[in-house]
Predict the structure.
Amino acid sequence: MPPVAESVCKTQPHASAPESRPAIHGCRFCDAPLNHSVVDLGMHPLCENFLTREQLSEEEPFYPLHAYVCERCYLVQVEEYVNGREIFEGEYAYFSSFSSSWLEHARRYVDHVTERFALNADSQVVELASNDGYLLQNFVSKGIPCLGIEPAANCAKVAIEKGVPTRVEYFGVEPAKRIVAEGIKADLLIANNCLAHVHDLNDFVGGMKTILADQGVLTVEFPTAVNMIELNQFDTIYQEHYCYFSLTTLQKVYRHHGMEIFDLDEIPTHGGSLRIYVRHIEDTTKPISSAVHDMLALEEAKGFTEMSTYTGFAENVKEVKRALLSFLIEAKREGKQVVGYGAPGKGNTLLNYCGIREDFLDYVVDRNPYKHGKYLPGTHIPVHATEKIAETRPDYILILPWNLKSEITEQLEYTREWGAKLVVPIPHLEVY
């Protein structure tokens, strides 16, 4: 990792470096040189570092946010300027349980895998990055032994209070060895939407190999790099998301570590994700499904083994920025009030890249009380409880967690009373 003193901008962001410059370090999977830029989003603060009022007048570090693609394994990635332990260990602002649709997704997943793999009281389930126990609580209610491994102490505390066994630990090969030495191996190992957050990819996947039982199954959910590029989802890029995966890339990663992807599901979460099912290569009881072969062929047909597919993304990102700023400029000139709904990490990437502050967005609201009374990183827009919308009756509401558009639209049904309109910026600007 580069020395922090050389990497951090302590003031507001300056103009970004040319998109043609190579990365400082090599690919975090195969170590090949990173010479191909996907998109340069400029300088950004850590997207989950919400500020108190007192911190508004203090120095705020900004880091380069520049995504590259490896020409050897096609892993899309950003350079690391802040170690993952610094981001996740201790206090972390994201709690999964504040989304009702996400809780329902977790419940359906647990029902599905319990039936498919005949899990029972003699099975062992382990979830990596288990957050506040939103998923494992469903196994607890079924009487299936489970263990969560979560680096953020405040999230783990909430899970433990729910009765979900949880260890506060940053996962990798050595922690996996310690857990196995205690007699715990996973019949079902779960890693949902956390692989992107791993700064040492090979250590994390090596830990998966270590802790998975001989005939165990690993399931991994992740938003795909394919959808990110095809649907302009650039706001999913931020410093704590180190990697962005295609199935093509993950097949290389898991085979390198002695595992095989044998099945997959396409799921709608996070704007389009895959759930892959992984086993040890030596486990011949689970044949590779046609779905895996079909998806690999589709990615190749769409050009995701060609550099031009990745390097053409940057211009589409600029157009999203232009459209959103044009809308906001016109709305404010007409004297309209515009506010934001949700304060997710992706929203902070969008707002900082577009240079949107209180001059365009009066405030944002969020259902998570942890964020109330604080300010968004970089833009310093205040965060309120959702009741604030009914108080000020804004003309437009910008939905920042666009992946939850349907859920949020239902929550905002009451704003029809005064004719508010909802705005979604991704994949293209939509006002409805």
User: Anything to note?
Assistant: The longest strand covers residues 212-223. Confidence is low (pLDDT under 50) at residues 1-19. The chain has 15 helices and 17 strands. The radius of gyration is 21 Å.
